[in-house]
């Protein structure tokens, strides 16, 4: 049988040699290679070699046929991408801890978001405008606008309130106001370091609006804007480091507001929805004057304004030399004014209560009371 198979194989090889060349299957190539490696006796094929070749062909075919299927059975076929990055599953205990930490972190984020959501500024740092040339020029501007539209009268800012806002903040109680006062005091040396002994002059020229809702006098271009911006950023950082919610998302743009429609909500019902450019076109490049940065106030947006129209001031700092005729201790007097007034009022109330308690009906007592009153009047006259 083997000899007959060998003859048939030889015949097949001969016919393949005479036929046109054609691609040979992998099994045939292996068979031919094995057949030509060693030749047994004439007309015979070694049976062991034949079985080995057939076995090799079978194994090779099986491997090629099942290559894709075998990959799915390998251990790395189901490896998660986290393992490639070195991220492994945490044991159950650690997972619980991580969930607790994540929950605490989420609570902090929620509280912070809630605080930001509830953030309603009610205090601000103000640079008061005291140059009479500037305030007089703004009054002329306001009157020119009112001549064109008298309905805008309630939208005008009073001349005592003219200022530049450096920073807005939220102070919810007296303790936070005191913290804000401390922050303002700490801010002074930083500002003086920025100015390096020089005056900061702020020139005002031209008119612009915020979305046609707020009209303001512009600060002329120049290096002074960069300096004022640096002061504003330093103030923001100083107050925030004290734990005070301060600042805005928008960029700092110094301006001097002279009117805003939000002051008169009824204007919208009357058809006034924006500040028309033609109302202020003749002042579009007008030079209003210069203000020297001399004082910064911590002011309340909500408390009753002072008699001169300026905002309620909690504290102030004076920047630079005192060249406006104020006494040397003016800054200390201004900062402690509220405390002194409260102390005086308490002392007077206590004196009156003690006087009423000691006062007895009778001539002698009345005489002593009169003498005390006379002494009091005498001391008062000496103070004046």
TrEMBL record:
Q: Where in the sequence does UniProt note compositional bias of the Polar residues kind?
A: 363-384
Q: Name one GO molecular function term.
A: protein kinase A regulatory subunit binding
| Signal peptide location | none
Q: Which Gene3D superfamilies match?
A: Cyclic phosphodiesterase
Which cellular component terms (GO) are annotated to the entry? cytosol; nucleus
Where does it primarily localize? cytoplasm
Q: Any idea where the A-kinase anchor protein 7-like phosphoesterase domain is?
A: 121-318
Q: Which PANTHER family match?
A: A-KINASE ANCHOR PROTEIN 7 ISOFORM GAMMA, RNA 2',3'-CYCLIC PHOSPHODIESTERASE
Q: What is this protein called?
A: A-kinase anchor protein 18
The species this protein was found in: Mesocricetus auratus
């Amino acid at each position: 049988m083997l000899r007959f198979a060998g003859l048939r194989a030889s015949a097949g090889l001969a016919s393949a040699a005479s036929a046109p060349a054609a691609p040979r299957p992998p099994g045939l190539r292996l068979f031919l290679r094995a057949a030509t490696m060693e030749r047994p006796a004439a007309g015979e094929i070694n049976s062991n070699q034949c079985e080995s070749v057939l076995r090799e062909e079978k194994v090779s075919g099986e491997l090629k046929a099942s290559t894709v299927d075998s990959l799915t059975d390998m251990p790395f076929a189901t490896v998660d991408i986290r393992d490639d990055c070195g991220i492994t599953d945490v044991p159950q205990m650690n997972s619980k801890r991580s969930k607790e930490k994540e929950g605490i972190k989420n609570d902090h984020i929620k509280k912070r978001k809630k605080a930001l959501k509830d953030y309603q500024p009610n205090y601000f740092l103000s640079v008061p405008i005291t140059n009479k040339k500037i305030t007089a020029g703004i009054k002329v501007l306001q009157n020119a606008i009112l001549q064109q539209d008298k309905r805008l009268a309630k939208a005008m800012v009073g001349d005592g309130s003219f200022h530049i806002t450096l920073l807005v903040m939220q102070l919810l109680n007296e303790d936070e106001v005191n913290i804000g006062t401390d922050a303002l005091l700490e801010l002074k040396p930083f500002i003086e370091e920025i100015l390096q002994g020089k005056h900061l002059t702020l020139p005002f020229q031209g008119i612009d609006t915020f979305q046609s809702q707020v009209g303001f006098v512009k600060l002329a271009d120049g290096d002074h804007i960069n300096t004022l911006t640096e002061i504003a950023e330093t103030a923001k950082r100083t107050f925030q480091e004290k734990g005070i919610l301060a600042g805005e998302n928008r960029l700092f743009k110094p301006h001097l507001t002279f009117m805003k429609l939000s002051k008169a909500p009824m204007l919208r019902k009357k058809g006034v929805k924006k500040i028309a450019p033609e109302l202020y076109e003749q002042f579009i490049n007008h030079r209003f004057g210069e203000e020297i940065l001399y004082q910064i106030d911590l002011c309340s947006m909500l408390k009753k304004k002072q008699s001169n129209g300026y905002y309620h001031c909690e504290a102030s700092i004076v920047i630079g030399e005192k060249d406006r005729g104020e006494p040397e201790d003016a800054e200390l007097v201004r900062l402690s004014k509220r405390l002194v007034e409260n102390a005086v009022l308490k002392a007077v109330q206590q004196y009156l209560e003690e006087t009423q308690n000691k006062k007895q009906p009778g001539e002698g007592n009345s005489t002593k009371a009169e003498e005390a009153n006379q002494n009091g009047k005498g001391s008062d006259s000496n103070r004046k």
